[in-house]
């Protein structure tokens, strides 16, 4: 049995690979803002920052579960999580001011199952 961290890493690997097959360009994975001691800026991690085929900058949140026993992976993306990802996205943009995109959005990807049998779902523009 894999740990929840190993399952999560596997899900992120699958999500990024599938998005790349759909012509998304990976800019960075597992991004965290640079923080100095005592810094009050938002803390957390963006699973993947990608550029979609239309030129939009996409901040991807991946949720992975082995089974649906505890609900859909999307159930874990509550409004508080969405707001945190948005704050992290703005932090990413401020740390990468030279990067220009047509627009910004947050997408969510759900992976459920095992490496030999899994489902994949991609929701664009999660609010």
TrEMBL record:
Gene3D superfamilies: 3.40.1350.10. One of its GO terms (molecular function) is nucleic acid binding. Belongs to the UPF0102 family. This is UPF0102 protein IDM48_05315.
């Amino acid at each position: 049995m894999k740990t929840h961290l190993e399952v999560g890493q596997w899900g992120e690997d699958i999500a990024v690979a599938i998005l790349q097959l759909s012509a998304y360009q990976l800019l960075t994975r597992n991004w965290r803002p640079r923080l100095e001691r005592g810094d009050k800026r938002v803390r957390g991690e963006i699973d993947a920052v990608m550029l979609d085929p239309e030129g939009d900058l996409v901040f991807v949140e991946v949720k992975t579960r082995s089974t649906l026993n505890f609900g859909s992976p999307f159930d874990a993306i509550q409004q508080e999580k969405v707001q945190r990802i948005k704050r992290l996205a703005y932090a990413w943009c401020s740390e990468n001011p030279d990067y220009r995109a047509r627009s910004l959005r947050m997408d969510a990807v759900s992976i459920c199952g095992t490496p030999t049998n899994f489902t994949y779902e991609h929701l664009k523009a999660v609010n």
